[in-house]
């Protein structure tokens, strides 16, 4: 009897043995998975410089003997925790930057408390970010600062940079930052102004619960959470896969609530009126036109980003006023662009090569 | 080496991947309709309203049971956070005083590294 084309009969016993071993490992590791806690995340040594309500400013302890002159301030997305950029040693963007000789600060967010429901975009752009910038200047003794914004942290950084366009921001790096909100098609449909009464929602719940935000993200790929469980079981024998899964799953489930007024503004001014793209955005009466940004800018976007599709992000580079500007599209999704094995190989070295010369 | 097209494990993994993509794509198409938005927001509106009413009812119930309400617990948490915040401020001030009065350090007792690093390609040249 002939074997089907491409089937190597000699390898079958070996393959069966391997699958039996994996099945045994699945049972053992499955029990281990349930009984153990996940890896410890965000453990790169750091000092808290300031905590004020929802705002926290950290300074990571330098790891190089000599560091670049210009410090980095990372502005996290308001919906997510900053430890996505500091997973575990070897897979930590922060650790990578520190080892490459950067001085790193992070503006991270905690869940806004009920009485912080009145926080507005003004509080984030005209108070929290400038306050952190001042503290970074004071702590580092340097006037110039590189700002890195991830996702909506990128939007806040753009607003900050367009209002405070005469300094002290020296460089701006945005990761997967949307500016054309019409192109976030599903979010547009979820928040269709004919059916979505944002005023009623905010007035009834105060701060928009993290579960609600997480559900809206999950709805973009509704089957993925269930299928990820199947894939986890399939790969549970593989310690590296399980570690990666646990890190991402914990982070993905740790979505922050949003301050009510800030959410209301985001929906009305960005989702409905697309003011950032149209150049009509203002924060606290101050025009926030991104064409006023003149500093060197790098925008990293992901080829398979389902949260911020490329069409929503692609106009950023064209619209800023900088002459030194670059967009880089890398393989991966919204999260794998910045964290995980793909980021280690792709984004991080690219960022280092772009930023090093601009940090002296 | 066995061809992947004949490997049952690879076929299973491929099938799972394709099913996931197919279901996501199908759901995305359905969710892009205005009808979906209408139904979703109607249900969401009712849920939010019910949640608010239930919260108010629970608050009254807890008061009658002489138990701390969520608002009171939140109030306590806020006071703790405020104390933590003030401690952090004091810590930052202490670091600052320490920095001003002794050799420059990173706030952790170790000396701050000099800000003289240059990128590998720019070593020895002025940018």
Structure description:
The complex is a heterodimer of chains A (about 350) and B (about 130). In chain A, about 40% of the residues lie in helices and about 15% in strands. Chain A contains 15 helices and ten strands. Chain A has helices spanning about 10-35, 95-100, 120-140, 150-165, 185-190, 200-205, 210-220, 225-235, 240-250, 260-270, 275-280, 310-315, 315-320, 340-345, 345-355; strands at about 45-50, 55-60, 70-75, 105-110, 145-150, 170-175, 280-285, 285, 295-300, 325-330. In chain A, the strands form two sheets. In chain A, strands 1-2-4-3-5-6-9-10 form an eight-stranded mixed sheet, with helices on both faces. In chain A, strands 7-8 form a two-stranded antiparallel sheet. In chain A, strand 1 (about 45-50) and strand 2 form a beta hairpin. The longest helix of chain A has 24 residues, at about 10-35. Chain A starts with 11 loop residues before the first helix and ends in a 5-residue tail after the last helix. Chain B is mainly alpha-helical and about 130 residues long. Chain B has two domains: about 10-65; about 70-100. Chain B is about 70% helix and about 0% strand. Chain B is flat. Classes of the chains: A alpha/beta (about 350), B mainly alpha (about 130). Chains A and B meet through strand 1, helix 3, helix 5, helix 6 and helix 8 of A and helix 1, helix 2 and helix 3 of B.
């Amino acid at each position: 009897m002939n074997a089907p084309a491409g089937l190597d009969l000699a390898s079958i016993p070996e393959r069966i043995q391997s699958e039996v071993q994996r099945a045994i490992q699945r049972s053992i590791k499955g029990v281990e998975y349930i009984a153990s806690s996940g890896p410890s995340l965000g453990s790169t040594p750091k000092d808290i410089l300031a905590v004020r309500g929802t705002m926290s400013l950290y300074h990571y302890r330098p790891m190089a003997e000599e560091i670049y002159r210009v410090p980095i301030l990372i502005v996290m997305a308001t919906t997510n925790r900053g430890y996505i950029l500091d997973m575990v040693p070897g897979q930590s963007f922060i650790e990578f930057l520190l080892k490459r000789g950067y001085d790193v600060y992070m503006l991270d967010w905690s869940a806004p408390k009920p009485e912080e429901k009145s926080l507005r975009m003004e509080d984030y752009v005209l108070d929290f970010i400038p306050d952190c910038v001042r503290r970074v200047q004071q702590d580092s003794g340097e006037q110039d600062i590189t700002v890195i914004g991830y996702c909506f942290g990128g939007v806040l950084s753009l607003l900050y940079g367009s209002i405070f366009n005469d300094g002290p921001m020296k460089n701006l790096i945005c990761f997967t930052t949307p500016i054309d909100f019409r192109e976030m098609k599903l979010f547009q449909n979820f928040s269709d102004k004919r059916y979505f009464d944002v005023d009623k929602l905010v007035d009834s719940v105060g701060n928009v619960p993290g579960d609600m935000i997480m559900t809206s993200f999950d709805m973009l790929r509704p089957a993925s959470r269930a299928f990820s469980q199947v894939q986890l079981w399939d790969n549970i024998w593989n310690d590296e896969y399980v570690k990666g899964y646990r890190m991402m799953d914990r982070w993905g489930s740790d979505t922050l609530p949003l301050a009510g007024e800030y959410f209301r503004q985001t929906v009305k001014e960005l989702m409905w009126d697309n003011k950032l793209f149209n150049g009509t955005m203002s924060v606290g009466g101050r025009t926030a036109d991104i064409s006023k940004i003149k500093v060197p800018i790098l925008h990293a976007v992901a080829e398979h980003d389902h949260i911020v599709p490329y069409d929503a992000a692609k106009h950023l580079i064209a619209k800023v006023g900088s002459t030194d500007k670059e967009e880089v599209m890398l393989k991966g999704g919204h999260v794998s662009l910045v964290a995980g094995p793909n980021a280690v190989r792709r984004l991080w070295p690219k960022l280092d090569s772009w930023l090093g010369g601009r940090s002296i | 080496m066995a061809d992947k097209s004949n490997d049952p494990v690879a076929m299973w993994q491929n099938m799972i991947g394709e099913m996931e993509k197919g279901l996501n794509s199908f759901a995305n198409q359905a969710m892009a309709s205005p009808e979906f938005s209408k139904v979703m927001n109607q249900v969401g509106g009712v849920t939010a309203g019910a949640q608010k009413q239930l919260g108010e009812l629970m608050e009254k119930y807890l008061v009658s049971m002489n138990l701390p309400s969520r608002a009171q617990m939140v109030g306590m948490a806020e006071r703790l956070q405020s104390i933590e915040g003030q401690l952090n401020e004091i810590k930052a001030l202490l670091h600052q005083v320490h920095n001003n009065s002794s050799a420059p350090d990173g706030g952790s007792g170790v000396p701050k590294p000099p800000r003289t690093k240059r990128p590998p390609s720019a070593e020895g040249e002025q940018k």
